[in-house]
Specification:
This protein is of the alpha+beta class. Helix content is about 50%, strand content about 15%. It has two domains: about 1-95, Pleckstrin-homology domain (PH domain)/Phosphotyrosine-binding domain (PTB) (PH-domain like, Roll), CATH 2.30.29.30; about 130-335, no CATH class. The strands form two sheets. A seven-stranded antiparallel beta sheet has the order 4-3-2-1-7-6-5.
C-alpha cells in the first residue's frame, strides 16, 4: 500500500481540497472530508511529471488528484508502468547539468534536420510534383508581381522581341520557357526565375548590359534555377520548416496562413547561396558548350556590384548570391572559359 497526500479537484468548481490517495494492488482509493471513492487501475491516467510541477492523477469521472514530489510517488509511477522513462525525464528536468547538454543536443539535431534533412527531402519531392502545379504557381506569381511591384516594360518592343528570340533560340524545344520584360523601379536591375519556366528581366538589367552575351549569361543562370527546380525546392523547404515549427509550438493557425501567402513567398524568394552556385555552374557550362565566354556573365556581375555594392541592394540580383569576387573568379578561370581562339560572336 502506498499513501500520497495532495489536492483534489471535483471538476465542478475551480477550488481544490486536501485529499489522500491510497494505492493498492486491487485498486486506488481517493478520500477527503466529503468523499471516499474507489477506482480500478484502468480508471486512472497518470500524467508525466514536468520539472517541479505536481504529478497529476486523472480519473475517468473527471476528478483530478495532484501530488507534489514525496516518498512513494516514484513507486506509483513504477507500478503503473510509467516508472523508468518518466523518472529519468523528471531527473533531467531538475538538474542543470543535464538540461544544458540535452538542450545543446536538441538544437544540433534540429539544426541538422533543417540544414541537411529538409533540403534533401524537398529535392526528392520537387521532382515528383506534376509540372501543372508549378505552372499554376508561376502564373499566379507573375500576376501578383504585375499587380504590386512591376509595370509593363518601357523598352522598345523590337528590342524586347530581339532579346527574347536570342534567348529562346538557345533552347530547343522552348515550350517550357517564357521570357518577360518589366519595369520594376523597386527592385532595380534584376532577373527572376518563376516556376513553370517564366523568366523576368527588369528594364534596369537590360539597360546595364553592354553585350548581348551578358544578358544571355544571366538568362542561362535563371534557366539553371528552373532546371534544378530551385523555386519549388525553396518553397517546399520553407513550408516543411514551417510545419516543423507548427509541430513544435502547436500553432496550427500558421499552417493555413502559409498556404494563403504562397504567391507572395514565391515573389520574394531568395535562393540559398548553394542554389546560386549551382545555377552559376549551369550557366558557365552552358555558355561554354554554346561558344560563349562565361566572362561576359562575370562582366555584368562586376557592373552590378559597382552599382549596388558588394552585397547588392535589398532586392537586387546580388542580394543573396555568393560574393561577387568568388563568382567572377569561378566564371573567368580556365576550366570555365573557351580557348581564346574559339568563336564568341
Amino acid at each position: 500500500m502506498i499513501e500520497l497526500q495532495g489536492q483534489y479537484y471535483d471538476g465542478k468548481i475551480s477550488g481544490s481540497k486536501s485529499a489522500k490517495l491510497v494505492y493498492r494492488e486491487s485498486g486506488v482509493e481517493l478520500s477527503a472530508e466529503d468523499i471516499h471513492l474507489i477506482y480500478a487501475q484502468d480508471d486512472l491516467k497518470l500524467q508525466p511529471r514536468l520539472a517541479n510541477i505536481a504529478a497529476r492523477f486523472e480519473f475517468s469521472d473527471g476528478i483530478v488528484f495532484e501530488a507534489s514530489d514525496q516518498p512513494g510517488l516514484d513507486d506509483v509511477y513504477k507500478k503503473l508502468h510509467q516508472g523508468t522513462f518518466h523518472k529519468l525525464v523528471h531527473k533531467l528536468e531538475n538538474k542543470i547539468n543535464y538540461i544544458v547538454p540535452t538542450f545543446v543536443v536538441a538544437v544540433v539535431m534540429l539544426w541538422s534536420l533543417i540544414q541537411y534533412g529538409i533540403p534533401q527531402f524537398a529535392k526528392s519531392v520537387a521532382y515528383q510534383i506534376p509540372i501543372e502545379y508549378e505552372t499554376r504557381m508561376g502564373y499566379e506569381t507573375l500576376s501578383l508581381i504585375d499587380k504590386t511591384v512591376c509595370e509593363p516594360s518601357k523598352l522598345d518592343r523590337q528590342l524586347q522581341s530581339q532579346l527574347r528570340q536570342k534567348m529562346l533560340n538557345l533552347y530547343k524545344p522552348v515550350d517550357h520557357l517564357r521570357v518577360e520584360f518589366r519595369y520594376c523601379e523597386a527592385i532595380g536591375a534584376n532577373a527572376l526565375a518563376l516556376p513553370s519556366g517564366i523568366i523576368i528581366f527588369t528594364d534596369d538589367m537590360v539597360s546595364m548590359s553592354k553585350h548581348d552575351h551578358e544578358l544571355l549569361g544571366v538568362f542561362t543562370h535563371e534557366v539553371g534555377h528552373i532546371e534544378y527546380r530551385h523555386t519549388l525546392r525553396h518553397v517546399l523547404q520553407d513550408s516543411i520548416a514551417g510545419l516543423l515549427i507548427v509541430m513544435l509550438t502547436g500553432d496550427v493557425g500558421s499552417a493555413s496562413s502559409m498556404a494563403a501567402a504562397l504567391p507572395a513567398v514565391l515573389m520574394q524568394t531568395k535562393f540559398s547561396r548553394d542554389f546560386e552556385r549551382e545555377a552559376d555552374s549551369y550557366a558557365a557550362e552552358f555558355m561554354q558548350n554554346n561558344k560563349m565566354q562565361p566572362v561576359h556573365f562575370a562582366n555584368i556581375l562586376e557592373r552590378l556590384e559597382e552599382e549596388y555594392g558588394e552585397e547588392g541592394s535589398t532586392d537586387s540580383f546580388l542580394s543573396t548570391h555568393p560574393l561577387t569576387k568568388e563568382r567572377v573568379s569561378f566564371l573567368t578561370n580556365s576550366k570555365n572559359n573557351m580557348n581564346k581562339g574559339e568563336s564568341d560572336e
